[in-house]
Amino acid sequence: MSNLLEQVFKEKALIAYVTLGDPSVEATITYCKALIDAGISMIEIGLPFSDPIADGPIIQASHQQALATGEDVSVNRGFALIKQLKEYAPNVPILIMAATNIIMQYGYQSFFKQANDVNCDGLIMPDCSFEMVQAINQIQQPPNVPLINLVSPVCDTERLKNIVTYSKGFIYLISSTGITGERNEFSNKLKQLVMDIKNIKNIPVAIGFGISQQDHCKRLSQFADGIIIGSHFVKLIQEKPSLKEGIDAVCNRVKQFKAVL
Questions:
Q1: Is 240 buried (19+), middle (13-18) or exposed (0-12) by CB count in 10 A?
Q2: Cα angle vertex 51, ends 48, 52, to 5°?
Q3: Catalytic residue chosen out of the listed positions 6, 37, 44, 158
Q4: Has 37 been annotated as catalytic?
Q5: Integer Cα distance of 92 and 40 in angstroms
Q6: CA-CA distances (angstroms) from residue 121 to 43, 44, 54, 104?
Q7: Where are the beta strands (DSSP E) in 28-75?
Q8: Which of 76, 74, 56, 54 is nearest to 66 (CA)?
Q9: Contact predicate 182/216, CB 8 Å
Q10: How confident is the model at residue 55 (pLDDT cuts 50, 70, 90)?
Q11: How confident is the model at residue 179 (pLDDT cuts 50, 70, 90)?
Q12: Which among 6, 26, 55, 182 is annotated as catalytic?
């Protein structure tokens, strides 16, 4: 694990997902800086994709909005954003989340070289199998840009052992099966899963998918190392009549969530 990720997970981490270019690239820059000022621990920059298979309607709409602007929301623009944010706050980890097809088309070797150059702290490809992650790791991946593996509540014991053993950075534990989106119920296996992961390897575990309330954060952070908020923050931005009001609403939630971690 990079020293920066290791440092962040010394305390309970609050991680925000942000779609690049929704509602504009300039707005994304403003939003990310506001998140950092509000005390966010880490940011995932989502690269818009026309058919994101793991995402629910809220984030799908966010992707469509970003693509519809006609602005540059490419991998290179994502790298430029990371470079800007690293100049603003060098100690806040910034990751890229993208469909496997986007990274494959860009070229894995080129991606990891550029990611390393801008101090990107990791890559999450939600639709990428563990086997493919392993193949990429063996051929391409530089040590400073870990590929973050996802684990679901239905993962069997042997597969869990393999995934965790070869994971770097942290484990992204999906709160329940299905797509992203706000929900009130999470898998009752999460606490045991975190314990199982820790028994295999001492690696941080962050839980995501559907978390939207202070109570969720309080309950899950009792046994997880981090909480990932995606759809809830995106929805707050979408619902407010102005960007400023949306950003203010999200930053208030960041402070509320951090208060119970």
A1: middle
A2: 65
A3: 44
A4: no
A5: 8
A6: 10, 10, 22, 19
A7: 42-46
A8: 74
A9: no
A10: low
A11: very low
A12: 55
Domain positions in the chain: 3-148+221-260
**Higher model confidence: residue 180 or residue 137?**
137
Higher pLDDT, 253 or 52: 253
Q: pTM for this one?
A: 0.94
pLDDT above 60 for 180? no
Active site residue 215: no
Report the residue count for the chain: 261
- CB 35 within 8 Å of CB 250: yes
CATH: 3.20.20.70, 3.40.50.300, 3.40.50.970, 1.10.10.10. Which one for 3-148+221-260?
Answer: 3.20.20.70
Here the tokens at position 209 are 């998918």
Looking at residue 53, its amino acid is: I
Q: At 204, list the tokens.
A: 């941080």
C-alpha to C-alpha distance for 168 and 22, rounded to whole angstroms = 30
